[in-house]
Amino acid sequence: MYDDKLHEECGVFGVYSSGDKDVASLTYYGLYALQHRGQESAGIVVSDGKKQKIIKGLGLVSEVFNNENLKTLDGKNAVGHVRYSTAGASTLNNSQPIHAISKYGEISVAHNGNLVNADVIKDLLVDAGVVFQTSIDSEVILNLIARNIKYGLEKGIQDAVHAIKGSYAIIMLIGDKLIGIRDPNGIRPLCIGKKDDAWFLSSESCAFDAVGADFFRDVGPGEIVIIDSEGIKSINDSEKIKSETCSFEYIYFSRPDSIIDGINVYKFREISGEILFQENPVEADIVTGVPDSGIAAAVGYSKASGIPYGITLIKNKYIGRTFIAPSQELRNKAVQVKLNALKSNVEGKRVVLVDDSIVRGTTSKQLVNILRRAGAKEVHLRISSPPVKYPCYFGIDTPHRSQLIASKNSIEEISEEIGADSVGFLSVKGILKAFGNGNNYCFGCFKGIYPLPAPMEKDKFYLEENKNEEL
User: Fold this and answer.
1) Cα(107)–Cα(97) distance, rounded to whole angstroms?
2) Residue 158 in 3-state DSSP?
3) pTM for the predicted model, two decimal places
4) Which of 102, 204, 85, 79 is nearest to 149 (CA)?
5) Cα separation of 273 and 253, whole Å?
6) Structural domains in the chain (count)
7) Given CA atoms 18, 23, 29, 31 in this order, what sign does their dihedral have?
């Protein structure tokens, strides 16, 4: 795999309009802004308050939707989804939003995250006669709500939320209402936007800019927001649990122009780079970042060190998701096709290469080789996060622990393995300093301590090994 990065599960976006807005097009542009969160499938559901229409397919937002099919999605409310699967086959059947019919009417659900007790709840629902159409845990949420809604909308949602455990940012269309839900630990982000007579829900605030809306506020951990003709109603009866937002939302997943829980993502990355230099100084001639996720931290490292920042790696922006290497030899060369060295900025120089993380180490090794072939005198790799030593169970596609280079090697061994002159990581204390607000964050992939009890590692390995099996 040429893209040796951690991957998030998906992005969600929703619109409620009491006026005459083209909510399908607004959702299209919102999903376009969230494309970095998932490239396997995309879907939009539009409701007129009673009936729902849905279009979804495999591929990028621009591949699934066009002017013709968007025109068929007429209504006043919409919910959309882009997907990267962490478990469950990459099939159209597993694409979201997922849809069902209940006593309350049609329901559509878009979900970002992972439930750790989905299998237990699914078994109970199957025993009760529920038939599942997909292999994704999001359908557990849909069926719980559909069964419980007979007791009333709010109680049905609350009962369903109390039953599920894990990470989730959920946007739903039920009747004439748009509903957003964030897990009690706030692991996955969800925020609210406003434009004229329209309300928006999104995984990230950058999507509001794409549709001309203003950021209103974040959905709080454990909060349920119900948006209808009367405005926004907030419900939060969850137990008081400390918020532990995923730290990788800031380190890598989110777009740098997003703001999550009051923290500017770009500024956080830049400050992380400054602290990275303080903890891991080195004498060099140029500081550079791995496009695109390492650039902000590289700017910070340069600012703190006084070493000039420069571009050394040129990214081929036209490869994208569709680049396929048909043989092992070509797969090994894929990084060289995606990134190429700017020899004039590298030759004869001591280079500090800044990246956001090291997972398996395969990409880092090839990047070091690219710079050396371009004539770099020295290559010092600096990572703006702590070593990734443990898998994630809450919506990130992490390899089995045995595949994580930092789980079994010292920093010196990592440096030798990837061929760098030195390697330096940001410490956990350093990343807390970069956050600077005294809040709690999930550092499970760094420390092995999670906000919720995690499944056995063998279960995680089984899910990852079988996630691409057809139903």
Assistant:
1) 10
2) helix
3) 0.89
4) 102
5) 17
6) 2
7) positive
